[in-house]
Amino acid sequence: MTEAPDITAGRPQPLGSTVDADGVNFSVFSEHATRVDLLLFDHCDDPEPSRTIQLHAETHRSFHFWHCHVRGVGAGQVYAYRMDGPRDTSKSGTRFDHRKVLLDPYARANINSRWERTYAIGLEDNVAHSMRSLVVDLDDYDWEGDRPLRLPMADTVLYELHVRGMTASPTARVASPGTFSGVVEKIPYLKELGITAVELLPVFDFDETQILRTGPDGSKLPNYWGYDPYGFFAPHTGYCTSPHLNTHISEFRDMVKAFHQAGIEVILDVVFNHTSEGNEFGPTISFRGQANEAYYHLWPQDRSHYMDFTGCGNAVNANHPFVAKFIVECLEYWVTEHHVDGFRFDLASELSRGDKGYEMAVPPVLWAIELSKVLAETKIIAEPWDGGGLYQVGRFPGKRWAQWNGPFRDDVRRFVRGDAGLVGEVAKRLGGSEDLFGPQNELPTNSINFITCHDGFTLNDLVSYEHKHNYANGEAEADGANENFSWNCGVEGPSEEHDVERLRVRQIKNLMSVLLLSRGVPMLLAGDEFRNSQGGNNNAYCQDNPTSWLDWDQAEKEQETKDFTRRLIQLRGRYRTFREPRFFNGHLNTRGLPDVTWHGTRLEQPGWEDTNARVLACTLGGFEDDPDLHLILNMYHLGLDFELPRIRGHRWHRVLDTAHRGPHDIVPAGKEKPVDGHTLHAHGRSVVLLAALPEKPEKPEKADTKDASR
């Protein structure tokens, strides 16, 4: 068959659509397809393609890749595919259906203005209701010299945020609420807060039109969080102000560049463990219609059914050779083309499963990510578990991977709420969790320390609710964790009682203090610093409404906790001991103090075996320019006297005390308050940090005898 004069064979690599001087090269993977059609649309909203180009195997196929070059087209061209081939769901697992219009898995941008999900599920042709891909010229942008920042992991303070939730509320007072541009307007706030990296909940294209269920009040509940992607190379259409103008790339890049200009890194929460296509009853969007047997884990006994290690209907077969290539190239693309600084991998343990679903000792895709030259200076963070029961905290494959530290979250929550007998576990968490990461010859920087994240209570709700309140999700309270290790301080939910509110503020300060004064990499949840609440909902994945949107009026109202968090981040930066990228090892400083000595109320009596212990103290020997520090954690409900070690020629000075109201809870550098005597009274449920400074002939501070919070 004679080709049209503007159609040539093209090249198999790179995959996707690539603009050159003459036109566009198109390439797509499908091992078992027998027919591939490239559909070209004149406009995003056209119900039918203006042109269909049939690719012929003898000309347009190289091994597993189908490709062609089309002259005279360029950036902004709207396109999609149809494929045909064997449909043998039970034996081979193939699911070709020429009636379904397919996105390019490597598309740099997509458009969903005509998309209706139900038409992608049934038997009819869905061209008039399909999503389409857009050709993007990646070179058409001025980066102004921008590059990934490559900040040290040990100095990182993460801030997890949802792009829409950050500014969707009218209280955000931004020009483009709920978009990449809206987030840019909040960068000055984040810079002032002192965080060094934002971790963005999924920004890959996902189907936010999917209605999961109807809420009890009749409202439609959508896929809000975005953990259900279909376009892994494409910024999410819904976060762009003008996607119909093909601005996806420039809007995302503008945000990254603005963050970098403020000295803040951008880390993407990526979801390679499953896709939006779901199980055998889900829609055909791209992967299923092109290479279902390659992309997904299928049951060996009957490959018409999908293995589900994610709780989302399917599981990506990440260690299939092509799928591993797809994942690594995707990550490298976001680094090279969008200057992204790192990635957090959702349910990352699923990526260590082999073809039959079993855990692999050496998963090729994870090691390919770790060893990639392009990703060598990129931060990689694993959520080291999956929905199928695989739990790999402290033993995640590879050495460079940082890991969300679930035990840190649980141990600190329980200790601060007042549970007894946990001082040994808390000491491990303060020191960087050597019990978890030491056996693998890893470091404290492998530990992502967190107390809250998008999944669970906010920090305010952690100290305001003892039970989840998820009724609005429409699942009859069956969703979300039942055990949250929370304490409501005496009243369930909002309270106007002064004592209850003061205690909640102190507990928030206590939790923040343990988080930021521990070795490892701390992560905060957006809004926790100003007591953002979700009304006790600990699984707000479907709440695209004020429940999940940050209330910026709270940031004005709750100045005390916001300012405390900002000054606490500064305090962490002031003392190197909290940011040391190594575990305690007993080394002595010039004053003869080891890097850590553990205590209780009495020196060197930490009470490791005391099942009633609710207090822990430690002396941290300072090295180089750091002073010696003494940290006291009193989670008993009453005030207690703590012995202080003596350091010749030095006097202890109060740096932090969560029992004090702001701004006196953290003392600025150079204004530390000297403490008289060799004991200190720490109020009930408080954290105190002292610094040993050279003695000066000045009047000492009297030891407190009353609760300073009242």
Automatic annotation (TrEMBL):
SMART domains reported in the protein's UniProt record: Aamy
Domain called Glycosyl hydrolase family 13 catalytic: residue spans: 160-572
Highest taxon of the lineage: Bacteria
Keywords carried by this UniProt record: Glycosidase, Hydrolase, Transit peptide
EC number: 3.2.1.196
SUPFAM superfamilies associated with the record: (Trans)glycosidases (SSF51445), E set domains (SSF81296), Glycosyl hydrolase domain (SSF51011)
GO molecular function: amylo-alpha-1,6-glucosidase activity; isoamylase activity; limit dextrin alpha-1,6-maltotetraose-hydrolase activity
Any GO BP: glycogen catabolic process
Family: Belongs to the glycosyl hydrolase 13 family.
Protein name as it appears in the record: Glycogen debranching protein GlgX
